Please model this.
Amino acid sequence: MPDGFEDRRNFMRLARVLDVKIIDLETNKEARVQTHDISADGIGFITDTPLNTDTSLELWLYISDTEEPLYTTGKVVWTNMVAPNVYRV
Model:
């Protein structure tokens, strides 16, 4: 989380790595990312491109024991650069 960011999560986050396809609905750019953690009301992932706060996304989560990916939508709450060209979202 960004420095000075108060953790106000309602649900515990679980460290899980899943492949995810995302589409940025502002730019229509598609990317493949991996989750960092997940919870009942949020997904943290790693990307090589920063995403603006409030960006709307479509997401397809590839869960190993299912044939079809899980589809959902979301909105970027924060982005934090953790290394050059590596962002936690």
Observations:
- The chain has a mean pLDDT of 87.
